[in-house]
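Dear colleagues,

I hope this message finds you well. In preparation for our joint manuscript, I am sending the Protein kinase domain-containing protein (Gossypium davidsonii) sequence together with its predicted structure, so that both groups work from identical material. I would be grateful if you could confirm receipt.
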Amino acid sequence: MVTVLQLCYNRLTGGLPTQLGSLHKLTVLALQDNRLTGAIPASLGDLGMLTRLDLSFNNLFGSVPVKLANAPMLKVLDIRNNTLSGNVPPVLKRLHAGFQYENNLGLCGVGFPNLKDCADSSKIYRSRPEPFKPNGLNQKNIPESADLPTECSKANCSSPSGSAKIGVVSGIVGVALVLTVAALFTFAWYRRRKQKIGSAFDSSDSRLSTDQVKEVNRRSASPLISLEYSNGWDPLDKGRSGNGFSQEVFESFMFNLEEVERATQCFSETNLLGKSNFSAIYKGSLRDSSAVVVKCIAKTSCKSDESEFLQGLKILTSLKHENLVRLRGFCCSKGRGECFLIYDYVPNGNLLQYLDVKQGNGKVLEWSTRISIIYGIAKGIRYLHESRGSKQALVHQNLSAEKVLIDNRSNPLLSDSGLHKLVADDIVFSTLKASAAMGYLAPEYTTTGRFTEKSDVYAFGMIVLQILSGTRKITQQIRHAAETSKVEELMDMNLEGKYSDSEATRLGRIALLCIHESPYHRPSIDNVIQELSALMSSC
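The corresponding structure tokens are as follows:
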């Protein structure tokens, strides 16, 4: 059964079929940034479950149907950048920031910011050049919501016989367009059912449909459920004081839903990079052509307390370091029931892909690159641990080879830094199972249930052993080789002996100190960097 139809950015032409009003289970209809013409069908008001309708950036004309404005579940109506005209139904004021109507010069209404009163607006509108008219359309074929001028001068009117001929041709063309668009909708519906694109998440790692999000809204008292940054976000209201946020800084990170959808091509499965038990990751491209990664997190997986959630965002936006993946921005969508984090795209994958490499594979890291990566990871951890200015000290909590991304200069970048401050505690705990299975989880966590800076140091030590040995699983044999300085048994065979014995021995000892059973006997990350700096200066 159709619940979501997203055909944005597809260069669709023609008019909107009135038959859309018969898709009674439809909750989201997104058609922005196409080349659609004609009027908005009043039949869309028959969609009793419709929560979001996005028709922005098209060439639609006529008025906003009163029947559509009265759609009972409608929360978001975006009609920006069309050629709509006429009186805006006053009932749409109930949507508040959910109603977006900018750049429709012919619209008027009372109580809507930036809209003229209809009495004044009609005079101004008639004084401008004549509005768009769809040449050759028979009036009988124009949807009931159209608001076209009926006057025409003799010079501009065709003869009766000519009009009749054009009307017949237009009728045929109109039917063809309706059938074509309807076929596109049907195909898109089938494809979306097959691919499961464009919904939020459930426990089986597929995404929630919007009607499921509404059920979450009904049952949850979380203030996050009512947030929608794409239409303005009240918790960041400039009038607020004492919340510790810089409005200017936050605004520089804010994306709207349209930008996120455009970047990911409406969350096309071709751009899907991977899924976890609480998020999906898409590759995307911003308007400036820069490559990004969009991490989609269901709001049910985020902190339920609004102040905690905002504090988490504040922490994420404060993190800036050469060895951390850069956060480009964020967006929250009530309609989709998701929060989006937009990061720089890192082209060379994660460190995990450079472990257990078969001989002859081109992904083998050279010795100098391995030392550089170890040093870069340590610097990234030190940045997180230190308190400087408005930045508070932070423990990563989930360091692993998978969280270390490699850029095109083989520079290591830590990902998901501070993410635990944004997502719910039960989600954080669920991600620890993988860390424990791979040996990254410090032993004291099982008794204290707490993360400290020494927990990160422990995970760092495990990563160092992985880089030296070139393997994911650190066995007792590898530990013993490091303890006894048997370098040939410790090192990755793919290096074929092209490494320094003394450097490998020192790195092995640093790793062993970091993974000491007792956190009190582990070095601080500052001490580790001092050792690494001394090692690199002697290279």
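For the figure legend, we might mention the following. Residues 196-345 form a domain with the Phosphorylase Kinase; domain 1 fold (CATH 3.30.200.20). Residues 160-195 form the longest helix (36 residues).

With kind regards,
E.M.
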